[in-house]
Write a structure and sequence with these properties.
Length: about 325
């Protein structure tokens, strides 16, 4: 039995840690709802007119699953904060459940990003297979680490259950910090692919009608997104270690940030293509893989010749456009001619 002053100090510490996710999760939901209503007009204008494709399905899945996920987070944390609700069995069971529902969101986003990398590399089956295998390995390692963590969760929180805390004890450490490491490494792998493509792609540095081509926007968005997600995952890992001065904020900000970044990136690409790039407005610009395609230029059904024909620029444009079936008709002028 610990001395009274030690027990009191431990109670204050655990109580303070438990209150932080309780206070953070509701603003996270408000953040997601605010962003939803801010971007709803763009969704209606740019996404709703799109054909029923896999890309459109993934956009709606990620967008609305994020909202439901934050509602779940709020309901779970605030219901468990009620006196007498949490018990050790419920807390042990809820911990992997929360991680799994959050991982579903992350995995959905990673599928989308793999397809974008697949498009950037000219629909390379080798690239798709390589990333697909790494993706499967990251999921398998995540599940293995999660199962190991769940086995020891009972022991980790047993002593803390004696205190009247607002919810399950916020106790991290052990192997729990490593659960999100596989996803972090996989995101870094996708980031390297995008970075390499940006470094070697000629088309990313050539302007079309005084504007950078779509591949430039795609690469920029991908790189910024990967950096953003990597930052969120790294911060999540640091908080989960349990030995730093950064307290555990809960999964609310993590879930919100992933959903908002992905949907805004999607809408941004559609808005870019929807603008009058070559004299005409384009309304249907995303392919079934949720990749922003590069345009093939056609005048009277034929692709115009230019000084860029036969270069890597032409290869980049054609490979991505072919994967989507997008055709942008130009005016009588030709690019580079």
């Amino acid at each position: 039995m610990l001395p009274d002053n030690t027990r009191q100090a431990e109670f204050v510490r655990l109580y303070s840690l438990s209150v932080i996710p309780l206070r953070v999760v509701l603003p996270s939901l408000v953040w997601v709802l605010h962003d939803y209503f801010v971007t709803l007009e763009d969704e209606v204008r740019y996404v709703w007119p799109q054909k029923r494709t896999f890309g459109k399905f993934m956009f709606f899945w990620i967008r609305y699953y994020t909202i439901l996920l934050l509602v779940f987070d709020v309901a779970q944390i605030h219901s468990f904060a009620r006196k007498g609700v949490p018990n050790i069995g419920l807390c042990v069971a809820m911990d992997p459940t929360i991680r799994i529902v959050g991982a579903i969101s992350l995995w959905s986003i990673e599928i989308v990003m793999q397809l974008r990398i697949y498009a950037l590399y000219g629909r390379s089956k080798k690239v798709a297979l390589f990333n697909g295998v790494l993706f499967a390995i990251s999921i398998a390692v995540f599940i293995g680490l999660l199962m190991d963590s769940a086995k020891h969760r009972n022991i980790n929180i047993a002593s803390a259950m004696q205190y009247p805390l607002p919810g399950c004890p916020t106790i991290n450490g052990g192997i729990r910090w490593a659960v999100w490491v596989p996803a972090t490494l996989f995101e870094f792998n996708l980031f390297i692919f995008a970075l390499c493509k940006s470094a070697v792609s000629t088309s990313a540095r050539v302007k079309l009608n005084e504007r950078f081509p779509l591949i430039t926007i795609l690469l920029q968005d991908n790189i910024l997104y990967f950096l953003g997600v990597a930052g969120v995952l790294i911060m999540n890992n640091i908080m989960a270690v349990g030995t730093t001065r950064i307290p555990w904020f809960g999964y609310g900000p993590f879930h919100a940030a992933l959903g908002i970044m992905t949907t805004r990136m999607h809408i941004h690409l559609i808005k870019f293509v929807g603008k009058d790039i070559d004299g005409e407005n384009i309304s249907n610009a995303l392919d079934e893989d949720l990749r922003m395609p590069m345009p093939t230029f056609a005048a009277g059904g034929a692709r115009p010749r230019s000084s860029l024909s036969g270069t890597s620029f032409g290869d980049d444009v054609e490979s991505i456009a072919d994967s989507s079936g997008l055709s942008i008709r130009t005016s009588s002028s030709t690019v580079g001619g």
